[in-house]
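note to self — DONT lose this again. spent like an hour looking for the file last time. sequence + predicted structure for the chain T wanted, 118 res
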Amino acid sequence: MATFKSPVKTNIGTDEALMYSAPDTIDSAIVVGFTVSNTSDRLLEATIWLQKSGGDSAHIVKNAPITRGGTIVLSGGDQKIVMEPDDEIRVYMRDPDDLDAEETLTGLADGIISVLER
């Protein structure tokens, strides 16, 4: 039986964060919608990738600009992402104007994924 899920991740920052993990109890998960919003007062660059359970990974976007108050749509319409059990979508943000910053920033962005698990 298929089930729709809509996990959210708030306060995404400059540290790597888990956005979604496909449970090991399903056959597959299909990401049918994926949006990340810049909730900060600065330009951000988003890096988001699919981490396969076997160790391989592939970027969905790398250093994609999101303007202050803007949104990036990564999946929806014709674009879908198929995931297998234990695959993960991971994310982090960076401020391209402050690349040498050593401090960890939080609360820069929020993400929403719509997933069909089956």
